[in-house]
Amino acid sequence: MSITLHVVSKRPCRLERGELRRVSQDRKMMLLAYHLCCPRCGFVNAVFNQHQGQLITESDDGEQVTFSAPIRCVYCNVTIRIAASVAELEEGPDVRNVRYR
Length: 101
Prior knowledge:
The protein is mainly beta and 101 residues long. The protein has one domain (2-90). It is built from no helices and 10 strands. Strands 1-10-9-8 form a 4-stranded antiparallel sheet, with no helix packed on it. It has a 4-stranded mixed sheet with strand order 2-3-4-5, with no helix packed on it. A two-stranded antiparallel ribbon has the order 6-7.
């Protein structure tokens, strides 16, 4: 399943499914992380740049984001691969059938 993600400036508690938020918001500052609202369950995950081999790259305009490694949603356990702000969801036998919101 492919889902287009959108970079927004909302607070993490206000993110909706399929939205990303840059940390820090000021693009002149160093990229620390992204908050990702899971497209499947709606839980907000923090994905840190340069942590355990994860490298986050952004387009010049900041609208397209790519993660070097897949992440797992903390809540529903789905695997999410992100390339050019398009998320590919991979569901396995360990994925929980839950919804956060």
